[in-house]
Amino acid sequence: MKKVKKAIIPAAGLGTRFLPATKAMPKEMLPIVDRPTIEYIVEEAIQSGIEEIIIVTGKGKRAIEDHFDRNFELEDNLAKKGKHDLLAKINQSSQVEIHYIRQKEPKGLGHAVWCARKFIGDEPFAVLLGDDIVQSEVPCTKQLIEQYEQTQSSVIGVQTVSDEETNRYGIIDPSGKEDRLYQVNQFVEKPALGTAPSNLAIMGRYVLSPEIFQFLEKQETGAGGEIQLTDAIQKLNELENVYAYDFEGIRYDVGEKLGFIRTTIEFALENEEFGPQVEELLKEILAKRSFTQV
Ligand code: UTP
User: Fold this and answer.
1) Which of 126, 154, 205, 214 could anchor a disulfide with 242, C-beta 3.0 to 4.6 Å?
2) Which residue has the CA at smallest separation from atom 7 of ligand 1?
3) CA of 264 to the centre of ligand 1 (A)
């Protein structure tokens, strides 16, 4: 059995839900406390045993490449000032090889994944969306790889959402369940409200067999006029088993404003260095608000 050693991080979307902040800055570079979102995702891949990553970028996304590149001038400056802790922090992702490919037009997630096909070749691979952070004891991608190794099949990360949210996600129609692993009848992208076959939503983490590329190759458009990864997964599911795994952990959607604010607050509260200060600060702000509202 081939091991999962490569990962694709699609990061070429327009980020329209976060305009105007994302007009000139990639949303994947928006910082959660002191690190850009995409760095948390690269770290999850490293901790899951991934050896090579390809980031799919597009117009206006150069900051991502610069972020993961060495900056000798900055390193020299920090070294001279004896700031070794900062020096270690800026090169944290250097343990993994990162490649880049450009998606010339943001035609959808399925198309972004297809752009990386030559890098993947004939191996199973992971996909981690560039705007979803998952916090868990065992890294989310590692959980999926473990399931892939047991089932020898593609495995898609899912979690439960409320009825009102089902039209924002790819939703599975499960046919059987063993612990957290589901067999799936059908994968449906963004079903209209009230028509979702379940509340189990695809959450930005995948381990896929390379057979998926034969379906992405067709470049068929789906929901929203985009080339959808979910549609290709459904076709793959008709050819070979594709499982869904209800992974353990908290998933943060950093690609929309409220999700970003929540993630920032929670991560700041958990920060070892200044978490308690942030808690005090929040209490102070809320107390001041309730005082002025009386
Ligand atoms: P999203 O749909 O959340 O990203 O895609 P978006 O299109 O940038 O966001 P909005 O809806 O306009 O606000 C999930 C991930 O897939 C990438 C995005 O960069 C994001 O990390 N993506 C999406 C691509 O790489 N290419 C695409 O064509 C679409």
Assistant:
1) 154
2) 13
3) 20
